[in-house]
Amino acid sequence: MAATAQAQMSPSGMASLTTQDFVKNVASSDMFEIETSRVVNERSQSQDVQNFAAAMIRDHEKTSSELKGAVDKALIPSSMNAEHQQKLDALRAEKTAQMDEMYKKQQIQAHQDAISLFEAYSQRGDNPTLKQWAAAKLPTLREHYEHAQRLKY
Predict the structure, then answer these.
(1) What predicted TM-score, i.e. pTM, was given to this entire model?
(2) Is residue 6 one of the residues assigned to a domain?
(3) Contact at 8 Å (CB) between 19 and 124?
(4) Residue 95 confidence (pLDDT)
(5) Tens-place pLDDT, residues 80-93
(6) Is residue 115 part of a domain?
(7) How many domains does the chain have?
(8) What are the angstrom distances between the C-alpha of 139 and each of 23, 104, 144, 149?
């Protein structure tokens, strides 16, 4: 997630993160990670990259499903944000040899952004149930980040 959720000042003066902004960012990030992983899973020659991509599809489809069950569906965007779409389009345009390297870099950055967003929301979010869910997802996001760093292609 390249964009962080917008902060709003609570009456106590501490910035809180709105559910709407958090959900919008999580949904876009999940769509991005799923779609880039589908592209790579179809075109990569690396078994390691294909295995990682398959795990990203499975795990982020699960996260998306959980999110849809936890919040008003009207909060969930139907498409990824422009920045994620641009990165997906760039990945689709890459030749196979460079595609794996681009995918690895994109996944590392996406998971760094996701970890920051989920940490922030779990601490300062405005929905107690969603705050707990965000905190519970952090270990998996950290695992994805570490796995992305070790990808071989």
Answers:
(1) 0.87
(2) no
(3) no
(4) 86
(5) 999 999 999 999 99
(6) yes
(7) 1
(8) 19, 19, 9, 16
Q: Which domain holds residue 140?
A: 17-72+81-149
Supply 32's token pair: 């991005």
Contact 84, 29 (CB under 8 A): yes
Residue of 78, 90, 84, 94 whose CA lies nearest to 44: 94
On the question of pLDDT at 3 being above 60, the answer is no
Six token digits for residue 78: 């139907």
Q: Is residue 104 part of a domain?
A: yes
Q: Which two tokens stand for residue 129?
A: 């149930």
How far apart CA 96 and CA 44 sit, in angstroms, is: 6
* Nearest-angstrom CA–CA distance, 96 and 53: 15
Average pLDDT over residues 115-132: 95
